[in-house]
Amino acid sequence: MKSLWLLTKKNLKLLVRSKSSALVVFFAPLFIILLLGLSYNSTSNYGLNIGIYAPSFSSDVESLMGSLQEQEFKIVKYETSVEDCVKDIKAGAVHACVSVPGSLSVEDNKQKEASFYVDPSKINLVGVVQDTLNEKFNLKSQEISKELSGSLLSAVSDTKSRLEEQGTQLSSAKEKSAAASSAAQEASQQLTSMDLTLPASTYNPQLITDFKSSASPKIKSGLSDVEDAKEAVEASELADKTAILSSLSEVEDKLKSLDILVSGGAVASSGNTSDNQTNVTSTTPSSGFLSALTLLEEELINTKVKLTAAATAVGSTSSSLSSTTQNLQESVSALETAQQKVSEMKASLDAQKVTDANVLSAPLVTKIEKVGQESSYLNYMFPALLVLVVMFSSLLLGTTLVMMEKNSPAFFRNYFLPLRRGTFVLSTYLTTLVITSVQVLVILAVSAIFLKENLAQLFPVAGVLLLSSSVFSFIGMGIGYSFKSEETGALASISTGSLLLFVSGIVLPIETISPAVRSITSFNPFVISESIIREVFLFNAGISGVWPELATLTGYALGLFAIILVAEYLVHKHFISGFMKHRHLKHRQQERRDKNNV
Amino acid sequence: MKLIELKEVSKSFGKNGILQDVSITIEEGDIWGIIGRSGSGKTTLLNLIAGFLEPSGGEVLHSFKVTETPKSLHANLHQIKDQIGYAPQHNSFYPKLTVMENLLHFGQLYNLPKETLQNNIKGLLQATELAAHQNKLAEHLSGGMQKRLDLACSLVHKPRILLLDEPTADLDPMLQKDIMAFLAQVNKQGVTLVIASHHLNLMEKVCNKVAIVHNGKVHSNGLMADIQKPYLKDNFTISLNPGENKERFISILKTLPVDKIIDRQQHLIIHPKNITKTITALLTMIQDENLYLHDLDIRRPSLDEIFETITQEK
Hints:
The complex is a heterodimer. Chain A contains 17 helices and 5 strands. By secondary structure, chain A is mainly α. Chain A has a 5-stranded mixed β-sheet with strand order 2-1-3-4-5, with helices on both faces. In chain A, α10 packs parallel to α13 (458-482). The two termini of chain A are 40 Å apart. Chain B contains 11 helices and 14 strands. The interface between A and B is medium-sized, with 24 and 32 residues.
């Protein structure tokens, strides 16, 4: 136990006394925490570029864009086609595209659809983009839904108030109709009570009376006239006197017959008046005709009485009906008003174009469209995995090789070899490259089994990986030159790799970190390498599509190579100085020991 | 023929002056010994000669090409690296490579023709007696073999001058002798040697020229005989058995006419004013006091003694 403690104590002392170890052990975690704290101390989506395509940018689309901008999204407008936006996703210029209709207002029972175009290979980003955009669209949808429901409820409320208003009118109409009904019933009863049985014939009783009083005198006057005429004819010397007298005698006979008839010489019985028939016979023509006239006269009188009563009843009924008519007219008017109001209400309800419950509850729907071919998650993760492997391998190899050389007993001899310093740097780089190439070949060969559809892209991917490997190798070599022991160098390499990985967007979306740190991390070679490989591997991009990134990586490699050369030169100077200092110190210690011995 | 010439060379690291006004001329075929105490500046001087360090003052010139005027060694180091071999104090080869691989690796980096390289390696393997171990990993060799491999690596390109920093450090006496014998053999093949060491007795046997470095200055340099000449004053050494009363011997000697008594463990080096009288008186007193004297040696001063004399004087 004691020895274990002693060994532990010794290890701790060695770590603390080695400046670089202490730096890495104690300050690296603090630095990383500080960096991550600064990076992710935010809930905003600072760096998400969202492309918006709409056939026309109406005010509500602009409003949606405004709300996205409030969320710290950077909005890029696309007015020609959504394909332009999709191209930019592939190029990495925008992170997602949203294709929205020209107007978000819903005017019929059809839901408005917004399509999100996302790059499924950016798995973690997809979630953030989807969530945030869905949230915004849901808000907009709720807003529209609220507006639609408000409009519908307003129409319903208006209808209700109108119905309430019409209720009064209808009550009044109902009362008036009831009164009219009662009046009509009364009139009906009055009319029912009237005996309006009419005589069989229609005639003027006065005429009968006048006839009765004047017919006989007139007939007698006629007979007198005929006697006068006969006397005159007889007194005349007319040739045909006889004929005329004969005719006059006939007329006289007829008048006498008529006189007998009118004055009531023989009248047939007239007991049945119901059939309105009077039978006059030649045997008793006079008595029947007069009796009939008398009966007729009586009937006429009775009829007159009845009609008078009927007239009274009709007058009364007429008054009732007049009142009823007025009431009914008012009812009709009220009903017409009610009908008009109902029509208005119907029109108002008809004006509500959105009546579908689905549309009302979700006027906007979203659809996710994946950019690029549908692939497995291995495809999506593949670029990141490749760069991850290459990054850690190259970093560690670069560091280890430099450390091995620096700590090798042969390091001193190398200074006396007729070689330039750049040769040593390049040899270390080439060693890393060879080993990484083997690793890349193995990985790609194994990957080819799973990714048969992307075989053609594996060759350019290998090229990009070697370029990435160069950059990471030089970084690793730089670390190697900066640290003294292999352990601290390896630790620093792993820390550097972890840091590059952490701010690469693989673990957390790079777009969610603060702008200040993101502007630095966008230069992360891991991010650049992963971006190139993703574009080449998933979107089949050619060199022309990724040349800016390739140029950046190449620039990194060349810049780092220059830095490594300087580092090599400085290490050389430092080594000599350190070497001589070390020897000087050792000799002084030896001298002191010798003196003590003497 | 001059190979390297140091003209009033000074070197300092920051405010620490390590060497001052050193002037040495190394000619082809020489075996130069740079001797001095630990920390005296031997290695610094060696590194200046190797061009590994740039002088703070003065100049280090090389004349490897006869037709050319001497040039700054440090400034033109890259052009003459194939002329120089360097064997640092600690072995400088790849422990994870075999003997043959190490030799091939370093030899090939000098761009030697394949045949020449193979001949060189063959000769070196024989000379260093490493032929039987040529396929062994360097880390599996014994200390002596590793030292020989290191020397072989320094010689694989057949340099004209070989600089050696403490070549016998950490080796047992037998191996030290073997190494020095090997170096002598190398010199016979035309390689100029510059050896920095504090094993003065070994240096005395091998070197024909010596530079004594002390406190940052070269106090004597040149041919061994020339250096010894001023110190050719007779002296004698008495050797005592272990446990013998050395203090008593010293007190007796102090009563005699002696200039200096140097205490070297079991040996006392005595510089008498008159050697005959001093020895006679000493022997009489030993006999009177019944003391035992293991050995008495009357000889010329060794390099060690000269060095001691010089360092004590300064």
